[in-house]
Amino acid sequence: MARLGKRRPARARSGVSGLQGRQAPPAAPTVPRAVGDEAVIIERLAHDGRGVAHTAVGKTLFVDGALPGERLEVAVHRARKRFDEGHVRSLIEASPERVTPPCAHFARCGGCDLQHLALDAQRRHKVAVLLELLARQGIEPSPAPQLLAGAGEGYRRRARLGVKVDAEGGVHLGFRARHSHRLVDIGDCTVLVPSLSALLPPLHALVASLEAPRQVGHLELLESDQGVTLVVRQLRDHAGDRQRWLTFAGQHGLHLARRLGRESPALDWLTPAPTLTCRVPGAEGELVLGFAPGDFLQANARVNRQMIETALAWLGDVEGLALLDLFAGVGNFSLPLAAAGARVTAVEGNPAMVERLAGNARHNALEVEVRQADLSRVGAVADLLARGLPKVAVLDPPRDGAEVACRALVEQPVPRLLYVSCDPATLARDAARLVHGGFRLTRLAVADMFAHTSHLESMLLFEHPRTGRQPLGATPDG
């Protein structure tokens, strides 16, 4: 046990170890096969950004890295009963929208899957995906979707880097390959903000110099108003390596923390604990949001600002209106709406974020009623709707959506409902419930939060014409 976590001496061996060694045998042939003797033509993009074609016998084929209109030969790397999955073997005729990916790691890293497609075309694709998913639910928005977007590079202010020591003792640091546990070494990243990307080479060198690199699970990087924070996920303490991390943090001016242990590790600051903040737009100037590592924070600060500004514009004059913000986090929408004059009740399930939300309201001198509730319970949402008679509701749920909240809102509708989504499939499901329950979709926006990826965020505004409550903008009775 004395060598637990130590670097193993290099030795010759075959096969794989760790997570890869425990995987089930691959469903695909180990050697890719070509699709017949004829080239295929890509018909469209699937929602996940892969090209869609059909073989000569009519079988659907999903092709990584292929674009609509392209003629190419495909190598199938996974054959399934109803469809095949493949990649480009040779490109015969390229799309005019194909571009050279800006990142040298594009072909291997699973982080960005659309860098070969021009940025404008990526965004048109995301709009089309959202409209198609809504249309499948019988929803066809009359207004054209707005596009909220920023730069295509240098936008991501947080990242999680995997660390792995291979069987020969080599240390790897980077992101996962697509659909794989395999780690791709990353020397720089075009979508990270420059302060984070610049740390990748020295971080790799540091991890390679540790005495117990196997005890490092992953690294979290985060940029805030206070600079860069590094959080080390570590299985066991190692005094010598702890000092190496501290020296590194001092050299690079970082805030340093770790999460130590296997089960529910708590955050432990190794440098003086900072009060991390970011800024969001308010009705009369900037608002300050405090947060901690692990709290939900939108990765793209510029697009997040546009989403907040859009919410304020769509909802209009909310002075004095009772507003219920569900899945409120640390106050990303609650505080700007309170600053605009709304009487906000902000509800969040995570106790730590509830505490920080209340502190953020006090720091910005805003009156916000902050409550903790399990929003997966129909009764909890119904009680919140009944007690406050809100005129506006805001939903900003995680990827699994807000199905329970939407059911409650159909039973107890509000005049206006703003739904902010990070998953178009669950959004379409919830939007169908709302529309079939009497709501009308009046505004729609696609937010390109993660340029060069197929990830899609959106904002929808619903109105309910038959609520029987006070019209939006009227003076409340109290």
What composes the largest sheet?
8 strands, mixed
Unreliable parts: 1-32, 468-478
Give me the count of strands. Answer: 24
Helix count equals 11
Strands of the widest sheet, in order across it, are 8-23-24-22-21-18-19-20
What is the CATH level 1 assignment of the largest domain?
A: Alpha Beta
* CATH fold annotation of the largest domain: Rossmann fold
Q: What is the first-to-last residue Cα distance? A: 67 Å
| Computed structural class | alpha/beta
The value of Rg in angstroms is 25 Å
CATH architecture grouping of the largest domain: 3-Layer(aba) Sandwich
- CATH superfamily placement of the largest domain: Vaccinia Virus protein VP39
Q: What percent of residues adopt helix (DSSP H or I)?
A: 10-25%
Overall, the morphology is globular
Mean pLDDT: 89
Keywords: 4Fe-4S, Iron, Iron-sulfur, Metal-binding, Methyltransferase, rRNA processing, S-adenosyl-L-methionine, Transferase
Biased composition (Basic residues): 1-11
Enzyme class: transferase
Catalytic activity: uridine(1939) in 23S rRNA + S-adenosyl-L-methionine = 5-methyluridine(1939) in 23S rRNA + S-adenosyl-L-homocysteine + H(+)
